[in-house]
Write a structure and sequence with these properties.
The complex is a heterodimer. Helices cover 42% and strands 17% of the residues of chain A. By secondary structure, chain A is of the alpha/beta class. Chain A has a 5-stranded mixed sheet with strand order 3-2-4-1-5, sandwiched between helices. The radius of gyration of chain A is 20 Å and the shape is elongated. Chain B has 4 helices and 23 strands. Chain B is globular and about 105 Å long. Chain B has helices at residues 3-35, 58-103, 134-137, 249-252; strands at 113-127, 143-156, 161-170, 177-179, 184-185, 189-191, 198-200, 203-216, 219-227, 259-272, 275-284, 301-311, 315-336, 341-363, 366-381, 386-387, 392-393, 403-414, 416-420, 423-437, 446-459, 462-472, 483-493. Chain B is α+β, with helices and mostly antiparallel strands. The chains are: A alpha/beta, B alpha+beta. Chains A and B meet through α1, α2, α4 and α5 of A and α1, α2, β1 and β8 of B.
C-alpha cells in the first residue's frame, strides 16, 4: 500500500510538471498596434497582406502603416513565420511590386515597440521578452515554434 | 482496524504528498539554476586582477597597483561614457526620424520620393530567308541593343496621395525606317556645338504619369496616363518579371490599348482570408492618333475590369477580365485663308469593342498563364487598305472592311531553386505558344509563335535570359518561310 501511494505521488509529479509549465516562450512574436488602430485582433493572413501592401486596413481599423524591425533576427523570424519567404524572395517581391504599383517596402525601426507607440496607425512586432504592458495593444501572438 | 497501521498508512500518504509538493519547486529551482546566466567573465575588462603579491615587490607593486587602480577607474568611466554616448546617438537619430514624421502630421514612414527602374541589354540574331519580304523589314544581322531603360519616380505626398511616373528612355527615333518606298532612315546624330563630338540623340517615352488617391482599399481614384488594367504583364511589365525575352504579341500589337489617358476608379475587396476581388472602371480618350494628350471626338472610351485571386500555402489562382468600348476618330484640318476658317475632315472613324481575359495558376515552383483578347472593329469612315507592316496604301484600292482581331498565348514555366556556393540561384525553363490574328480579313496578318528558353536569376535583381523563337505564318499569301530568332538578355532591376 505504501509503495502504491509513493508510486502514485511520483507519477503525479511527472504529470503535473508539464501541465504547470508555461506554454509561452520569450521568442514568441507579438503583433502590436498603435492606440489609434481600432481593431482587437487580426489573422495571420491579414497581417501578411498588410506587410506585403496588398491591403491598407483591416475591418474598421482605418489606414494601417506597417513597420518592420531592423533587428535581423526578429525580422528574419517574422519573414519566415508570417510572410513565408526567404530573404531573396522578399527582395524580388518588392522589386516586382515597385514596378507594378509603385509601392515600396515598409520602413524599419530598431525599437518597434517605441515606433508603434509614437506613430499613428502603426502596426509592428516585438519578441515577447521585449514587450511592455501598456505601451501598445497586442492583436496577434505568433508562437516561436 | 489496527490503529498503528492506519497511523503508518496516513503518515506515508502525508509524507508522499509533502515529497510531491517539495519536489515541484525543487525541480523548478533546479531548472532556473540551469538557466542562470553564466557568470564567467566575457571580456578582459571583467577579469579581476589577481591579488597575489611577493614581499620584495610589495612597495613597488603598491605604487603600481594604485596607478592601475586609477587608470582602471578612468578606463571604466570612459567606457561608461562611450556606451552612453552611443545610446544617445542612436536615440537622437531615431528621435529625429520621429520628429520629422510627426511634424509632417502623418503616420507614414515612407520617403517622399523613390527613384528606381529596370534596364535590358540584349544580343539577338534573326534567321530569315533572303527572298522573303520580311528580310527587308526585320533587322537580320546579329546585334547588341538596349531594349529598355525605364525609370520610375514614385512620390508619396500624404498617406493617401501619390504620384507615379514611368519614363522609358530610348535611342528612338534614331534608326527608324520611316519610308520604305524611297527609303528614309532617321539619323539623330549631331556634332556637339562646342567640341564637334558626334552625339546620338534619343527620346523619352512617357509610359505612365498618374496621380493616385487611395483613401481606402475598396475605393481608389487614378487620373492621368495609366496602364490599362488588363492581363498579367501589362501592369507588371518589368523585364525582370516577364519570363520570355519580349512581351506577348497581344501587347506588342496593341490589341487593347496598353495605356490610356483619363480617369480610373478601382478598388479591392477581401471576401475571405487570402482572397481578393479587384474591380476597375476607366473613362478615357480611348485609342487614337493623339489620345495621349487630346481626344478628337466627344465620345469617351469606357472600360471595366474584374479580377479574382485566391492564395493557398503553395499555390494561387487568378482569373481576370477587361471590357473596352471606344470610338476612334482621325481628322485632318484645312485652313481657308480667305474666310479664315478651318475645315475638319474625318479621314477614319470606327467603333471598337474588346474583351480580354487572363488566367494565372501558380503551384510550388510552377506557373501556367494564359491570355485571350478579342475585338471587333466597325467602321463609320473607312480608310483605304494598307499593305501590312510597311503601311503603304495598297495600289489595288479598296476600303478597309469591318474586321475581327484576336490574340492568345499560353505559357508554362518552372522555377528551380539551386543552393550554390555563390548563394541561391533560380533557374527557370519555359515554353510559350502564341497565335495572333490582327485582322481576320487579311491572312498576311496571322502569325503563330513558339518561344522557348531558360532564365537564370543569380540574385533578386538580375535575370539572364536565353531564348529562341520560331515564327510562322499559317495563312499568309506573301510570306512562305518561317523566321527563327535567338536572343540573349541581361535584365537588371535597380
Amino acid at each position: 500500500m505504501r509503495k502504491t501511494i509513493l508510486t502514485l505521488a511520483l507519477i503525479s509529479a511527472f504529470w503535473i510538471l508539464p501541465a504547470t509549465a508555461s506554454a509561452e516562450s520569450p521568442n514568441d512574436i507579438l503583433v502590436i498596434v498603435n492606440s489609434s488602430v481600432k481593431v482587437k485582433a487580426i489573422s495571420l493572413s491579414e497581417l501578411k497582406d498588410l506587410f506585403l501592401k496588398k491591403r491598407t486596413s483591416v475591418g474598421t481599423s482605418g489606414k494601417v502603416t506597417p513597420v518592420h524591425a531592423k533587428s535581423p533576427e526578429l525580422r528574419g523570424d517574422f519573414r519566415k513565420l508570417v510572410l513565408g519567404m526567404s530573404p531573396d524572395e522578399e527582395k524580388k517581391y518588392w522589386n516586382d511590386r515597385k514596378i507594378q504599383t509603385g509601392d515600396s517596402e515598409p520602413v524599419s525601426f530598431s525599437d518597434t515597440l517605441r515606433a508603434t507607440y509614437k506613430l499613428r496607425g502603426a502596426i509592428s512586432y516585438v519578441y515577447r521578452s521585449d514587450f511592455k504592458e501598456g505601451v501598445a495593444k497586442v492583436v496577434l501572438e505568433i508562437s516561436a515554434e | 482496524m489496527n490503529r498503528l497501521w492506519v497511523l503508518k498508512k496516513n503518515n506515508a500518504f502525508v509524507f508522499s504528498t509533502i515529497l510531491l509538493l517539495l519536489g515541484l519547486p525543487a525541480i523548478a529551482w533546479g531548472s532556473a539554476q540551469d538557466a542562470a546566466p553564466d557568470t564567467t567573465p566575457a571580456t578582459i575588462e571583467e577579469v579581476e586582477v589577481p591579488a597575489t603579491k611577493t614581499a620584495e615587490k610589495e612597495s613597488s607593486e603598491t605604487e603600481s597597483n594604485e596607478a592601475d587602480t586609477v587608470s582602471r577607474e578612468e578606463f571604466d568611466t570612459l567606457k561608461a561614457e562611450l556606451t552612453e554616448l552611443r545610446n544617445r546617438m542612436d536615440t537622437a537619430e531615431e528621435e529625429a526620424e520621429f520628429e520629422a514624421l510627426e511634424a509632417a502630421g502623418i503616420g507614414e514612414f515612407e520617403p517622399s520620393l523613390n527613384i528606381y527602374g529596370f534596364t535590358t541589354v540584349d544580343f539577338y540574331k534573326v534567321f530569315v530567308t533572303e527572298d522573303s519580304p520580311l528580310a527587308g523589314l526585320m533587322h537580320d544581322r546579329s546585334s547588341f541593343g538596349i531594349q529598355d531603360l525605364n525609370i520610375y519616380f514614385a512620390g508619396q505626398m500624404t498617406d493617401t496621395m501619390r504620384v507615379l511616373t514611368e519614363l522609358e528612355f530610348t535611342f528612338m527615333p534614331h534608326g527608324s525606317e520611316t519610308d520604305l518606298l524611297t527609303y528614309t532612315r532617321i539619323d539623330n546624330t549631331y556634332g556637339d556645338l562646342y567640341t564637334n563630338e558626334k552625339k546620338t540623340l534619343g527620346g523619352v517615352h512617357i509610359v505612365r504619369a498618374q496621380y493616385d488617391w487611395k483613401p481606402v482599399d475598396y475605393f481608389n481614384v487614378t487620373v492621368g496616363r495609366f496602364l490599362t488594367p488588363f492581363g498579367i504583364w501589362n501592369n507588371d511589365h518589368g523585364s525582370t518579371v516577364v519570363i520570355p525575352h519580349r512581351l506577348p504579341f497581344l501587347m506588342i500589337r496593341g490589341t487593347i490599348p496598353l495605356a490610356q489617358t483619363g480617369l480610373m476608379i478601382s478598388g479591392r475587396f477581401f471576401p475571405a482570408d487570402s482572397t481578393y476581388i479587384d474591380y476597375g472602371f476607366t473613362v478615357t480618350n480611348g485609342r487614337g492618333p493623339t489620345s495621349e494628350i487630346y481626344d478628337l471626338n466627344e465620345h469617351k472610351a469606357l472600360g471595366a475590369r474584374l479580377r479574382f485571386e485566391k492564395e493557398w500555402e503553395n499555390a494561387s489562382l487568378a482569373l481576370g477580365a477587361y471590357g473596352f468600348w471606344s470610338k476612334m476618330t482621325d481628322i485632318v484640318k484645312t485652313l481657308d485663308i480667305e474666310a479664315l476658317e478651318f475645315e475638319k475632315e474625318v479621314v477614319e472613324e470606327f467603333w471598337e469593342y474588346d474583351i480580354a481575359t487572363d488566367l494565372l495558376f501558380k503551384f510550388w515552383g510552377g506557373r501556367i498563364q494564359a491570355e485571350y483578347v478579342r475585338g471587333l472593329i466597325q467602321f463609320e469612315k473607312r480608310p483605304p487598305v494598307l499593305i501590312p507592316e510597311v503601311n503603304i496604301i495598297d495600289p489595288s484600292g479598296g476600303l478597309r472592311p469591318d474586321y475581327v482581331k484576336w490574340d492568345m498565348y499560353v505559357l508554362g514555366a518552372w522555377d528551380f531553386n539551386l543552393d550554390t556556393k555563390h548563394g541561391d540561384v533560380v533557374l527557370t525553363p519555359f515554353i510559350e505558344y502564341e497565335h495572333s490574328v490582327m485582322d481576320d480579313t487579311n491572312p498576311d496578318l496571322e502569325v503563330g509563335v513558339i518561344t522557348y528558353g531558360i532564365n537564370l536569376s543569380p540574385n533578386p535583381f538580375v535575370v539572364v535570359k536565353l531564348a529562341g523563337a520560331h515564327i510562322y505564318f499559317p495563312s499568309s499569301i506573301s510570306v512562305d518561310d518561317p523566321v527563327n530568332t535567338i536572343n540573349t538578355q541581361l535584365c537588371v532591376a535597380f
